[in-house]
């Protein structure tokens, strides 16, 4: 069955960096667009990036543009989110998700999330 497992979260000071990983199994990653979402306490879950299966093109929420970079390695069944210049408002649980079709289509599967805390 499809499994998405996030890792790499943790606590970091403002201005710091983290790289999140999503290990995908149970499906052929190369054929699916993959997204990163996050949910801060008391707030709705929001999509922050998506990476296409066709050409690895990426889309980002404005608040993370220029700081976050999504990537994928289909040979390793991995999706990544590099986060630089982290801010306290980036504190959230981060989720990896799989689309049916391209970015913005129907979301099919989710991971359980990894906590990112940005605090001095």
Describe the model.
The strands form 2 sheets. Strands 2, 4, 5, 6, 9, 10 and 11 form a 7-stranded mixed β-sheet that branches. A 4-stranded antiparallel β-sheet has the order 1-3-8-7, with no helix packed on it. It has 120 residues and is mainly β. It has strands spanning 3-7, 10-12, 18-25, 34-39, 46-51, 58-60, 68-73, 78-83, 92-100, 106-110, 114-118. It contains no helices and 11 strands.
Short description:
The chain is mostly beta strands and 120 residues long. The protein has strands spanning 3-7, 10-12, 18-25, 34-39, 46-51, 58-60, 68-73, 78-83, 92-100, 106-110, 114-118.
List keywords for this structure.
120 residues; mainly beta; seven-stranded mixed β-sheet; 0% helix; globular
